[in-house]
Amino acid sequence: MKILIIDADSILLNKRFNYGDIVPRLQIGYVLSLLEMNNLDYYFLDCRFIDEIENSLSFYKSADIIVIFFNTYDYKFAFKLANYFKDKIVVGIGPHASALPLTIIYEDSPFDYALRGECEYDLIKLIKNLGNKDELDKIESLYYSEKKNSKISLIKDIDNLPYPKYHSFNGRYYDILPVPFFKKANWGFVNASRGCPNLCTYCSPMNRVSYGYNYRIRSAKSVVDEIEYLISLGKNVIEIVDDNFTVSKKFVTEVCDEIMKRELKIKWVAQAKIDTLDKDIMLKMKTAGCFCIRTGVETGSNKIVEEVKKYKGDWKELVEETFKYAKQIGIIVDAYIILGLPNETENDREETLEMLKKSKPDFVQVHYFQPYPGSLLYDNAEKEDFNEYLYHYNCSLKEFRTVKNKIYKIVYFNPKAIIKHLSLFSGFYIRNPKIFSRLVNFLIN
Ligand code: SF4
Questions:
Q1: Together in a domain, 133 and 185
Q2: Whose C-alpha lies nearest to ligand 1, atom 4?
Q3: Is the pTM of this model over 0.90?
């Protein structure tokens, strides 16, 4: 029996990607490790790195079970893949199957099963028990025509998961953030915690690196063991891919202390919610090798940030103070902005621009709000066809582009920012010329 695992992200096929991050989907890496541990034969097809699909698929005709990981924006693409394999057993996993299983399991659908949430162990159970209804009924996250009571699975003890299978990722996940060093970057990725206890209304707990509100951490020892393992594979930069690495100050302190105790000379980056950062923890992270914090700033409007239940208080001041201190101690900041949140007005967008002028992040990623299934805002959204690009509020595409360009001007296209960027990253670009040429291409276009 051969299993085909597909990461159905059509990012290249649909030309959605110009420049930025493509990181390995660690959930798939865990699945591949577990398949191997259970002596199950598999292929892995990562659609993010193919620009032609038909010929790629014909290679996998002999597979018996097809597992398709996909997000809502790739719903149609996932169905195209599922239809290609419709005479096989087809399983949907990932954000969309987790949030809306009923939209993939129905009469005549090419999908036979959906697994909801953190499906690593449940997928193995499903594969081993196909045809055994009694056993399938015990899999709580499983949704199929004969069992529609299912729930999101969360893995309690994430320390017990094996390390995600690295070599299946082909070493192609490196075209990301410049690093302030004079080396060829070789990225490794670690998942140290899962879940996020916050209730930001635009964020879908199905649509993150991990699932659910229930925050779970690994032991610091296990996280740093994995970092050491990645170093042994030649990785020299680590991205901690958690949705919110700094939920627990105690945990972050333990991880940093463990890195320092072992004297690991590794640069790393993590995502953090701004109000979980204080001077002590940032300094600790910096001392342990953290060179960059990625953070969801979302907006410069105190009104909007409160409405989306992200923060109550003076958000602008908090952002500015945090960025100022990060710069002071030499941590780079990558800020995520969302335009088009509900009730956002032109005035709010002006406030975002003003805030960015003052806080001056080193990098910025501007996103167009989409109410993803599973988020609190999805329930209120005027649902159009969720197959297509999801719905936005009060911000036309033209306006989105105009404001985005203004943001790029503030953060990137001004003499001061260019001089700072080159002083930090010239050495990196010399050793990583491909990334530099992609950056230039992106800027020209
Ligand atoms: S936006 Fe960040 S902090 Fe808010 S719920 Fe999502 S992961 Fe948590």
A1: no
A2: 200
A3: yes
